[in-house]
Design brief:
It is built from eleven helices and no strands. It is mostly helical. It has one domain: MetI-like (MetI-like fold), CATH 1.10.3720. Helix 1 packs across helix 11, helix 3 runs antiparallel to helix 4 and helix 9 runs antiparallel to helix 11.
């Protein structure tokens, strides 16, 4: 008959909550972060189901209903709840479809920039000093340029399109991940568990990606959330300048560019895309603040 070892409890007799419960506890303390999370969840839902939620095709033109105001305003029509644009296209359908483009931009930019930045940052942390110095000086040069200006130059070289805009924004965002990953990895390299892994003969790839990287993810996740909103904002800015998505693509920045000359006599064609950008970016930034509070041990209150 074998004895079963008793379950271990902390010295103070209080069982610690699970990691997810602890994370949600600190995250939910930030009311703005919870609000941002719900708004972001709605944004994701709209982006996923936009083709079914939109009442019309975003490119369909109703020439007899050009510049119809919103339904609650005099002259409005409930067939077009948010009005129509100068070509008679339904604003609600274009805004809902535009959410899909913005979400796609955010996902692609964050995935590409974070993947490349993490790999380069880990290489820099483990590399000899001369190679580390070269990598970081290149990153410093990229960061010395204003991000939007550098993205404009890259798009001008590659050609104006949504795909090239995403590539340019990802290149501009990558140095932030490189510096963050390198700094976090250098802090972890001095710890005992890394020394133990070296002693037992762990190879360099295992040390980089399985030993050190998991302990560097907290600040990277926060940076990814904030980069998501920056990517949406930069894509909208490039679209507004004519260097991003091209008409008739219903991207929010492109919609703003098409509506510039109607600001004074058709406020809705400018206001609604602008509000969509504002609310989406604000919600993601609020959510990013909550992630920082929940994942950074220095900000956790005992």
């Amino acid at each position: 008959m074998t004895a079963t070892a008793p379950a271990q409890t902390p010295a103070n007799g209080v069982e610690r909550p699970g990691r997810f419960k602890e994370f949600y506890h600190y995250f939910s303390e930030n009311r703005g972060a919870v609000f941002g999370l719900w708004i972001f969840a709605g944004f994701v839902f709209v982006a996923a189901f936009a083709p079914w939620l939109a009442p019309y095709d975003p490119a369909e033109q109703f020439r007899d209903f050009t510049l119809i105001p919103p339904a609650w305003q005099e002259g409005g029509n409930w067939a077009f709840p948010l009005g129509t644009d100068p070509l008679g296209r339904d604003m609600l359908s274009r805004l809902l479809t535009g959410a899909r483009y913005s979400f796609f931009v955010g996902v692609v930019v964050v995935t590409v920039s974070a993947t490349g930045g993490i790999i380069i940052g880990l290489i820099s942390a483990f590399a000899p000093k001369w190679l580390d110095a070269i990598i970081m000086r290149v990153m410093d040069i990229i960061l010395a340029f204003p991000s939007l200006l550098l993205a404009l130059v890259l798009v001008a070289i590659l050609g104006p399109s949504l795909t090239n805009a995403m590539i340019a924004i990802a290149i501009v965002a990558q140095p932030h991940y490189v510096r963050l990953t390198r700094a976090s990895a250098l802090g972890e390299l001095q710890k005992d568990y890394v020394t133990s892994a070296r002693v037992v003969g762990a190879g360099l790839p295992r040390l980089m990606f399985l030993t050190v990287l998991p302990n560097c993810l907290a600040p990277i996740i926060v940076q990814a959330a904030l980069s998501f909103s920056t990517a949406i904002l930069d894509a909208a800015a490039l679209g507004f300048l004519g260097m991003g998505a091209q008409p008739p693509t219903p991207e929010w920045g492109t919609m703003l560019a098409e509506a510039r000359e109607f600001i004074l006599r058709a406020w809705w064609v400018v206001t609604f895309p602008g509000l969509a950008i504002l609310i989406t970016v604000l919600s993601i930034n609020l959510m990013g603040d909550g992630l920082r509070d929940a994942l950074d041990p220095k900000l956790k209150r005992s």
